[in-house]
Write a structure and sequence with these properties.
The chain is of the alpha/beta class and 300 residues long. The chain has one domain: Spore Coat Polysaccharide Biosynthesis Protein SpsA, Chain A, CATH 3.90.550.10. 27% of the residues lie in helices and 26% in strands. The chain is built from seven helices and 13 strands. Strands 1, 2, 3, 4, 6, 7, 8, 9, 10, 11 and 12 form an eleven-stranded mixed sheet that branches. Strands 5-13 form a two-stranded antiparallel sheet. Strand 9 and strand 10 form a beta hairpin. Helix 1 packs parallel to helix 4. It is globular and about 50 Å long.
Length: 300
């Protein structure tokens, strides 16, 4: 079975202070993406598509083509502000592209098979990729997508706020809705809150959240394109509006176009939002190497 890993790597790293997608975390200069691709290939994914910005395409191509080009097929696609449907417009004062759902859309021309979506700067764990491959192999209804969920408490940073997709499910573990929640913070008393128009709202540590690890079938592209056109008509003149994956899925679920199965993985997530997160991630990866999960030199 063919399956593609779509890596969202177009972020500019404003909170991190640089391109964290290219930062070294392993003992031989490995990035977090290297470990994600290694796990995905081991699980059965046979192609990787990088969503990047034109400004750093040369660096990405040079780095990853040399390191993994002999191990798995690679494609690069660019997410830019003007990648929009014909007839749509936007304010000329806007500078950044349109968010994660827009990033997935730019992969349409090179993906014709089931595909997983991940963030470039998040480590999802080996079992998460096997969970999605198993799902693709057994799911016959291509209007049923999947999301791999994690416990909120295991996805927070000690160095600032994070954005997470809060998952609400029914008794059969299908999403009833997914809400992109911004500026979630864990305080010194261990309470977890996020700002609302009226103050702060609380979340529990065991809240299920999406870390942008999804499983989609190719019909996702056409469905999403229609929503993107509507989004641009309503929000295209705004400077900072974003077309998030959770927003699109929530609308599709409410319109009864799709279902989304919430999958759980025994893997432990970790990632980098802030520069101060890096030592923790380096230590985690070194421990996985010592435990035999990865070779010392990943692509040797």
């Amino acid at each position: 079975m063919d399956a593609t890993l779509l890596v969202l790597a177009a972020g500019m790293g404003s909170r991190y202070g640089g391109l964290k997608q290219m930062d070294a975390f392993g003992p031989n200069g490995e990035t977090i993406i290297d470990y994600s691709i290694y796990d995905a290939k081991k699980a059965g994914f046979n192609k990787v598509v990088f969503v990047i910005r034109k400004s750093f395409r040369k660096d990405f191509e040079s780095y990853f083509a040399d390191r993994i080009g002999n191990h798995v097929a690679i494609e690069f696609v660019e997410q830019e502000l003007d990648n929009i449907p014909e007839g749509c417009t936007y304010t000329p004062d806007r500078e950044k592209p349109w968010g994660t759902a827009h990033a997935v859309l730019v992969g349409e021309k090179v993906i014709n098979e089931p595909f997983a979506v991940i963030n470039a700067d998040d480590y999802y764990g080996t079992e998460s990729y096997s969970t999605l491959i198993d799902y693709f192999r057994t799911q016959k209804d291509q209007d049923i997508y999947a999301v791999v969920s994690y416990l909120l408490d295991n996805t927070l940073s000690d160095h600032g706020t994070v954005n997470r997709g809060i998952c609400h499910t029914d008794k059969e573990d299908f999403l009833t809705n997914i809400v992109e929640t911004l500026k979630i913070e864990r305080h010194s008393d261990k309470s977890i809150t996020y700002p609302t128009g009226d103050g702060n709202a609380s979340l529990t540590p065991d809240t299920l959240v999406s870390m942008n690890m999804f499983g989609f079938f190719p019909n996702y592209f056409k469905k999403t394109r229609d929503y993107f056109t509507t989004f641009l008509k309503n929000h295209g003149q705004e400077l900072k509006s974003e077309f998030f994956i959770p927003f699109v899925l929530d609308q599709m679920i409410k319109n009864e176009e799709i279902k989304v199965k919430v999958l759980t993985s025994p893997s432990k997530w970790f990632g980098v939002t802030y520069k101060e997160d890096k030592p923790h991630v380096v230590k985690k990866i070194q421990k996985l190497i010592e435990d035999g999960m990865y070779p010392e030199n990943l692509w040797a």
